[in-house]
Amino acid sequence: MSGTFIGMPAFPQAARASVHDATLRGNLRHATHTIRGKREQAVAEVADWAELREAGKRIKDHVLRHLDRYLVQLEESVTAAGGVVHWAADAEEANRIVARLVKETGEREVVKVKSMATQEIGLNEALQAEGIRAYETDLAELIVQLGRDRPSHILVPAIHRNRGEIRDIFTREMGEWGRPAPEGLTDSPAELAEAARLHLREKFLRAKVGISGANFMVAETGTLVVVESEGNGRMCLTLPETLISVVGIEKTVPSWRDLEVFLQTLPRSSTAERMNPYTSMWTGTRDEDGPRAFHLVLLDNGRTDTLADEVGRQALRCIRCSACLNVCPVYERAGGHAYGSVYPGPIGAILSPQLRGTRSEIDASLPYASSLCGACYEVCPVAIDIPEVLVHLRERVVEGGPVIREGNKVVLRPAKGHAAERAAMRAARWALTRPGALRTAQRLASRTRRLRPRTLPGPGRAWSGTRDLPPVPPEPFRDWWQRTRGGKDEAK
Amino acid sequence: MSSRERILGRVRRALADVPGDDTPYEQAVPRGYLREHGERSTEETVELLAENLADYRALVHRTDAGGLAGTVAALLHRRGATSVVVPPGLDESWLAETDVRRVVDRAEQTPGELDRVDSVVTACAVAVAETGTIVLDGSPDQGRRRITLIPDHHICVVRVPGQVVSSVPQALERLDPVRPLTWISGPSATSDIELDRVEGVHGPRTLEVVLVTGLPSGTDGS
Ligand code: SF4
């Protein structure tokens, strides 16, 4: 997997750097807690949540257990509907295929709707090396791209930029990339968003090639599904002449009907919405509506290795809702970057080491980035037992043993000198033994609640959406508890 | 060996533990979840749709067959629209009371042309009460996907109660996967600038939904 951040420090060091950043921590805490509360409401609205969760789990398990058959069926359906299917064993091959397809159109620029899969394979960088400019079209990604910057955070990628800086970046850089910012642009968010709308619109209107991922692929019908909020996804999926979708093989579901489960569980788990603003579904190509050419690149890149592990394969059920991030005490303190991968939080802790192997220090330490509290399992809409997989992966790191890498059986040696266990001790120490710091962060979030938004950019854009969020409670739970002993001293 | 064969081979080896007589799909997935949530009369379902649409910041209007043309004309007028995109199969009578310039949805149209149009009026395929969602399926009265994406103002007419279902499962049953589908639940919003909410970065920033009674619910011309 080429999405590793080069020279990334192992989790504990990276995490320590993040926990010292008070702004990041305050924002993150606020973000995770508000979305968490709202999610609970959204889930409580449906009486059959447990049944939907069970059905989602079983659909994904079934598809994984017969993935060869469903992939062949998917390929047939997509082909019959006018699409072209490509198979990519690893990141490098996927990037090569996409670069070739773009070049064949004669174009040198593409519009992109952010997707975890294309981030995982480092597609933008690979295209750049081939002389192709990829324009990210999520607002936060635009701010980051124009600022020649890296996302500061997966949950709120541009949170390190204040509005004045964004205005300066827009005024200075937009002209370099396309339509310049309007004269006399102020720093009001509405004006800045309008500037971004106009700047990106020019790109959408002239774009000949669009690149996307997908949330689901239906084997039976060949239908692809993209769930989004801002509308840039619709632009990329509809306006270009050529559409290239890069999708992990585990995104397959057997039948059309299965969408009735995930279209209920995904928005509620992800952004705590009854439904996200826009969902697009398309099957191959359609005469005179949308792209004339559709390419589907099916991506392995470590997924079949993950599938070979009977305990670990459940990680492939993940529908990238991010609910597990929002409840995780370790993620909340460490931030997304500490995980050294595009997949942060509890799911990243079990997915990255499996997709990439546990040979690097960061990947060997990831299974320890957890207190095993189990909250992630409780909220997971496909019931992935993350703690179970974490323990399993820890054993593998410490004891070594046979695993599958790139389709071949290799035997891992036990981690030398229990480096991983030492890493674990450090990870646990900062996360769990700082009640003072925790209290401060909670109070901070409460005091500044008037400055807080009613909405939140969804985790990591591709995991993303926006809706109203409930306000931060005036008094943190912890203070309330200390004052009232859980309500015993206070009439309810 | 092609990558296709390589990947399928890896999948098969990875699944060596799965028995040949593994539980078939029909039995592997328990469908004990609900077809819809709660019991409602037809009127209550329409009411719920209106509530949930409004909750997601769509502007909801109600009228009957006789009042539809007047409502559409008033909405375009209030918006100050000077041009409106119209899908080829839209019932002409819906626009009978407005003289705003029509731009017919055509294959040759460029996105740039559509960008200069103020509004769009369409029908829909189905509306989902529980989630406040309207679904477009590209039928002749809804047009190509891009016409409801580029103009900044979308007026969508829902024939009630015929086009309204309660739930997502019921909506999927009515939809044809072969058609390009767009599920819309309110205008979009972003909070990427200092977490301040701004509505609709892309796509129409104003979504108006007209719930009209007394029209047959079949999709015209399809
Ligand atoms: S593992 Fe996390 S991101 Fe994936 S489906 Fe479960 S809760 Fe959502």
Summarize, please.
The complex is a heterodimer of chains A (492) and B (222). With 492 residues, chain A is α/β, with parallel strands linked by helices. Chain A has helices at 11-19, 22-44, 49-65, 67-80, 91-104, 116-120, 123-129, 139-146, 163-177, 189-206, 232-238, 259-270, 303-307, 323-327, 329-334, 345-356, 361-365, 375-379, 386-399, 419-432, 435-447, 477-484; strands spanning 84-88, 109-112, 133-136, 209-212, 216-218, 223-228, 242-248, 252-253, 278-283, 293-299, 401-405, 408-412.
Protein architecture, described:
The complex is a heterodimer of chains A (492) and B (222). The model of chain A is unreliable at 1-7, 427-482 and 484-492 (pLDDT under 50). Chain A has 492 residues and is α/β, with parallel strands linked by helices. Chain A has 22 helices and twelve strands. Chain B is α/β, with parallel strands linked by helices and 222 residues long. Chain B contains six helices and twelve strands. In chain B, the strands form three sheets. A six-stranded parallel beta sheet of chain B has the order 1-12-7-4-2-3, sandwiched between helices. A four-stranded mixed beta sheet of chain B has the order 8-5-6-9. Chain B is globular and about 70 Å long. Classes of the chains: A alpha/beta (492), B alpha/beta (222). The interface between A and B is large, with 103 and 73 residues. Strand 9 (278-283) of chain A pairs antiparallel with strand 9 (181-184) of chain B. Residues 269, 318-324, 347, 379-382, 384 of chain A line the site of iron/sulfur cluster.
